[in-house]
Specification:
With 131 residues, this protein is α+β, with helices and mostly antiparallel strands. It has 2 helices and 9 strands, in the order E-H-E-E-E-E-H-E-E-E-E.
Length: 131
């Protein structure tokens, strides 16, 4: 059986800025549009994200986002934390938290205001603290 996956398509106010930001997180360019087609695809292992240009995008009003399920959210967070992003503003990064739905996750907001939730499954043994 062929593997299936979902690849989000997110807006970018500036593809060069977006490529640089995600490059600092270990993503490599996979595809770049040519001939006036402002489109880019970046990848890091099984994580693949598409971006299209929306030059008039107001990052503080962007409602786009996606979820990345990773093997180790804490390790991924440490890589993101190396960018020294604040916990407020755009871009920003929040610390990992164990969620009541059994995921350990954090959020990353990129320079275009895209909200990326990143997490890993805590497993069947996880019991929320309020239980």
């Amino acid at each position: 059986m062929r593997a299936e996956r979902c690849e989000p398509i997110l807006p970018s106010r500036n593809l060069d800025e977006t490529r640089t930001f995600y490059g600092q997180l270990g993503f490599t360019p996979w595809f770049r549009g040519r001939g006036g087609w402002d489109y880019e695809i970046v990848s890091r292992g099984h994580l693949v994200v598409h971006f299209f240009t929306e030059a008039q995008l107001a990052p503080g009003e962007n409602d786009a986002g996606c979820y990345w399920r990773v093997k180790d959210a804490d390790r991924f967070y440490e890589e993101c934390a190396a960018l020294n992003l604040g916990a407020e503003g755009i871009p920003r990064l929040t610390a990992p938290v164990d969620q009541p739905w059994g995921m350990r996750e954090f959020t990353l907001v990129d320079p275009s205001g895209n909200l990326v939730r990143i997490g890993h499954d805590l497993g069947d043994a996880y019991v929320p603290k309020d239980s």
